[in-house]
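Re: Re: ligand-bound prediction request (bumping)

Still looking for help on this. To restate: I need the protein modeled with 5-phosphoarabinonic acid bound, output as structure tokens. Inputs repeated here so nobody has to scroll up.
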Amino acid sequence: MSDRLVLDYNNMLSPRLGGRGIDPARLEALADRFAQAHAEVARRRDAGEIGFFQLPYQSEVREQVGNFANGLGQAFGTAVVLGIGGSALGAVALREALVKPHWNELDDDARDYFPRLYVLDNVDPSTLGPFLDRIDLGQALFNVISKSGSTAETMSQFLVVRDRLGRTFDDDGYRRHLVFTTDPEKGVLRRIARDEQIATLPIPPNVGGRFSVLSAVGLLPAALIGIDIDALLAGARDMDERCSSTQLRENPAGLFAVLQYLADTEQRAPMHVMMSYSDRLHGVADWFRQLWAESLGKEKNRAGETVNVGPTPLKAMGATDQHSQVQLYMEGPYDKTITFLTVDQRGEDLEVPKAYEDMPELAYLGGHTMGELLSAERQATARALAHRGRMNMTLRLPRVDAGGIGQLLMMLQIATVYAGELYGVDPLDQPGVELGKQLTYGLMGRPGYQAEAGEAPDPHWMSE
Ligand code: PA5
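Reply:
Sorry for the wait, this slipped through. Here it is.
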């Protein structure tokens, strides 16, 4: 692949940071440790424990997704994902990158793309009810995505939607508006699909939610809105190939993981900000936030000892957050790394017209493009941070296209499992989230879980 993602990490290293930052010798010293992490990840991959590596090579699922999207999927103008966490964030990242960038101000009617994809990843009634009132149910396909088939948020959304579909269509019509993406064997969603003959796509048992973007979880919503999923998977395969190197300096995911690990554990910088200088990559930063947090934030290490480790991923937008966050990044505690996401060739650009040539405060802008301004702001922020001894690195995509996004998503997933090895934790589980899920079941009266919820504590609220 000629259009390859580039990782520029000079500004993580002490020679660029006036003595602060990571000593290049420390990076060299971690080369063997990285090789061990690489070997352990390869072992777990070969043993079938880490399933996401296989996703870019699975032609059967790719075909199933294509058949559905090009067949029944064509009958709908609106696709709605019901899912949460890893079952939602990948679809948003793909949509924002490749179809509809993140905008703050324009409402949906002004976003002229078709067919539409909505991702409902919360259960706030003030959003869900009005949304369902507004869309044309006859035009809507609901993709219920849940690996476990038991997540309270997703299943309650499903029950609300099912009820509306049931009141609007006959049995056959009701079924046509649903497709489930879930475990191939287990879970209540699979059982309902069998009993009611609802179309389904599988999530492989060895692929967890946050590593599922290249399974049917991300591929079906992407294909429904016309994203080139073959190019996406090809980009991911290319990155997998690059990351087969055991040489730290040649492995982009390895470098990303080792540098962030050293920043956290040796430079006291546990805050990892991902700052996108492209509206299109905003969703990737959000997706990464979950991937990094849920995979690495752990109480126990793999030996069962209490370690309470994990960096805190944050997201920011350039240039917007230069006027919100960057003051803190420049002068606050030395507890952060900033990873800039940027694009070499922006598909669209806009020239700033020449005007007020007698006013130098404005005239310098005329004739440049908005893309040039955004790029200059990113470079200036990176240099200013380095000047102040603040660690930062840049992930540069040649273009925001399906191949580039496939590379980026795969790189960050591989980096996450390497980082799991470096921290000594299992990046594939999420026991902290599970406990919260069980307590919710208890509070909502699910049989077998009431004991978990216990008594409601006495409220200690401030009164007027
Ligand atoms: O990454 C994960 O495993 C989680 O974020 C899950 O995706 C999330 O909890 C939703 O779970 P499920 O897909 O089982 O409904």
